[in-house]
Amino acid sequence: MNNPSLYTYQFFDASSTNARRKGFSGAENDGSYIYYAPLSNEKGVFHGTVVRYNSNLDFDDELAWSEVDITQWNKHAKGFVDVLFDGNYMYFIPFHNEAHHGVVARYEVGKDFFDSLSWSFVDLENLLHPKAKGFVSGSFDGRYIHLSAYQESWTQYNSTMVRYDTHAPFEQVKSWQYFNTESLWPSSRGFHGAISTKKYTYFIPYVRENRDYHGLLLRHRNGTDFGDPTNWSSIDLTQIHPLAKGFVGGVFDQHHIYLSPYFNGLERHGLVLRVSVDKDVLDPNHWECFDMTSLHKDNRGYFGAIADGHIIHFIPHCKEEGIYHGRLASYDTRLDFQDPNAWSTYDTALKDPKSMGYMGGTLLHDSLFLAPYEIASFDHSGLMLRIGLNPSSK
After folding, report:
1. How many other β-carbons are positioned within 10 Å of the β-carbon of residue 110?
2. Half-sphere exposure (CA, 13 Å, Cβ side) for 341?
């Protein structure tokens, strides 16, 4: 049985020697290095300091850590939510700098991390569409990068999904497509991430204007014309459960899609949804629910999920408004989804009281690496966490 209390927990405060190295949202790896996406490192200040960890060195070795401020090459390249890897390039997903923006930053893996020639930038607002901005995360389906529409501004939510063909030139408009989902579903705004399977890409429902949290999951068939409405479909997850809304990302484990619970309009919640991709995903009868708060009242408010073999890990973020937590939650897929014994949690704050408020992460060499954002409202964190997964748990 999976037991997170048997994992090893290592910490490194990246901000201890450089105050800019904190406030991240998302992490990705290229097999050797972990890249952390910069979001905000003090109140109202969005930054572009990309931090990288060399996994060939000890986690707490200062020499293993380096950073580059990419605003030196593009002043608008800051305030990202998540980073995606296509096997050749790291793509930093644009959210907000001084305003919601569409500047995608791309780093060519294997090239000099500190050289401007290794980096390129595209401003989707100018290149593609004025509303191609304010994204939150996305996905890679093996060929295309998908950007998930979230906000146009702090008060207006977005419906402009964007897709990039990684086989085509980064800077050319013909390499990009967009689709306004409101042309099919008038209320389809405010999505928080995407999940790609072999056949489809799913856009995760989160919130619209006036704190209207929703459950409208959108789906696009991979490899087809992104702008053709006939390639899009949807399901309202509140058909499955009335509080099945307000999710933040999720994961595909080659069998099931899992949606990560965050906020449903009433409270930070722990309602995990899953569905087998071998069944009709648009049929509400094929979905399952499990409420993690049935195990502990604080198992709520997770920022994404990561699949590790047959274990699904949910990333701890926030249990109430401004109150953060470090309760890593894990599900063992060998057991029934609704079996409480299949689920386990561990409070990483028992190892370090500031271990909380993570936003995204990545898996490398049997370890989870979680990206720290903040431990209290506008108290940004640089406390990197490496969780060594117990081989006996797999």
Report:
1. 11
2. 4
Spatial distance between the Cα atoms of 150 and 172, rounded to a whole number of angstroms: 24
Categorise residue 322: left if φ over 0, alpha if ψ from -120 to 50, beta otherwise: left
Measured over the CA atoms of residue 178, residue 184, residue 185 and residue 187, the dihedral's sign is: positive
Domains within the chain, CATH numbers bracketed? 4-393 (2.120.10.80)
Instruction: Considering only CA atoms, give the Rg of the chain.
Output: 19
* Nearest alpha carbon to residue 383 among 11, 10, 9, 53: 11
Tokens of 169: 């030139």
Question: Contact 264/289 with Cβ under 8 angstroms?
Answer: no
Distances (CA, A) of 3 to 39, 130, 242, 332: 32, 48, 31, 10
User: What is the number of residues in the chain?
Assistant: 394
The tokens describing 261, both together, are: 């619970």
Structure tokens at 394: 């797999």
Q: What is the pLDDT along the chain (394 residues), one digit of tens a residue?
A: 688 888 999 999 999 989 999 999 999 999 999 999 999 999 889 999 999 999 999 999 999 999 999 999 999 999 999 999 999 999 999 999 999 999 999 999 999 999 999 999 999 999 999 999 999 999 999 999 999 999 999 999 999 999 999 999 999 999 999 999 999 999 999 999 999 999 999 999 999 999 999 999 999 999 999 999 999 999 999 999 999 999 999 999 999 999 999 999 999 999 999 999 999 999 999 999 999 999 999 999 999 999 999 999 999 999 999 999 999 999 999 999 999 999 999 999 999 999 999 999 999 999 999 999 999 999 999 999 999 997 554 4
Residue 73 pairs in a beta bridge with none
